[in-house]
Amino acid sequence: EDQVTQSPEALRLQEGESSSLNCSYTVSGLRGLFWYRQDPGKGPEFLFTLYSAGEEKEKERLKATLTKKESFLHITAPKPEDSATYLCAVHSNAVGSKLTFGTGTRLQVTL
Amino acid sequence: DVKVTQSSRYLVKRTGEKVFLECVQDMDHENMFWYRQDPGLGLRLIYFSYDVKMKEKGDIPEGYSVSREKKERFSLILESASTNQTSMYLCASRQGVGYGYTFGSGTRLTVV
Predict the structure, then answer these.
(1) Which of A95, B68, B88, B103 could be A43's S-S partner, Cβ–Cβ 3.0 to 4.6 Å?
(2) Which residue from A43, A96, A104 is facing B103, i.e. has the nearest CB?
(3) Which residues of chain B have a CB within 8 Å of the CB of A34?
(4) What is the C-alpha to C-alpha distance for residues B28 and A101, in angstroms, rounded to an integer?
(5) Considering only CA atoms, which of A79, A75, A101, A88 is closest in space to residue A37?
(6) A43 and B100 in contact by Cβ < 8 A?
């Protein structure tokens, strides 16, 4: 059974204080790893897809990296508008596979 | 941009009522999904559909049913709403296996 564990559950940063969110996964053959951002009361919004170990993707202050066991979402010099819950999900190679989601990291960035 | 539209942002229903949550996507996606999201429990899959008129149970189907008569529309039905079905309901679609999901904006359902 595919499993995704995200840490920490919650993170509070000051504006400009860089940090990383962790997503550890167990999957029977990784087809893709996905990062989403979710604002309160809204649906998750797609950020990145990573397909193989060593791959990196960037978008503004966010950079996602992937190893064979985990993914990191690095946030460089965050701003208050980066406050959100960040969800990680994996897609395995199994036939008919669906995404398995972690429970998310709730990020708060303060002035 | 793919758009997934959920018909209501907020709903308040009484216990025992039959509730319909509608979801429409505009990009000809094959697969559609219904999740509920609760604090501390994350996203839990209720039902999904890989094609028109096809449906499969997810992890927590009890008390729910679905309908997919047209490719673009996937409806979630609460046959007899109960207070433990108070939750945020999220619809998602994807082009096919291997692709990521596009989510709707969610429906916050309160059953009183």
Answers:
(1) B103
(2) A43
(3) 100-101
(4) 24
(5) A88
(6) no
Residues of chain A with pLDDT below 50 are: none
SS (H, E, C) B27-60: CCCCEEEEEEEECCCEEEEEEEECCCCCCEECCC
CB neighbours of residue B85 within 10 Å: 18
What single letter denotes the amino acid at residue A64? A
Cβ-based contacts of B100 with chain A (< 8 Å) = 32, 34, 46, 49, 89, 91, 99
Residues of chain A in contact with residue B4, where contact means CB-CB under 8 angstroms, are 43
Beta carbons within 8 Å of A3's beta carbon, 6+ residues apart: A25, A26, A27, A100
Q: What percent of chain A has pLDDT over 90?
A: 87
Q: Do B106 and A43 touch (CB under 8 A)?
A: yes
Candidates B24, B37, B41, B87: best to mutate against A (most CBs of A within 10 A) is B37
How many other C-beta atoms can be found within 10 angstroms of the C-beta atom of residue A27?
A: 20
User: For residue range B19-63, what is the model confidence (pLDDT) as tens digits?
Assistant: 999 999 998 999 999 999 998 888 999 999 998 989 999 999 999
Whole-number Cα distances in Å, B95 to A37, A59, B67, B103: 20, 23, 19, 12
Taking each continuous run of H as one helix and of E as one strand, the counts in chain B are 0, 12
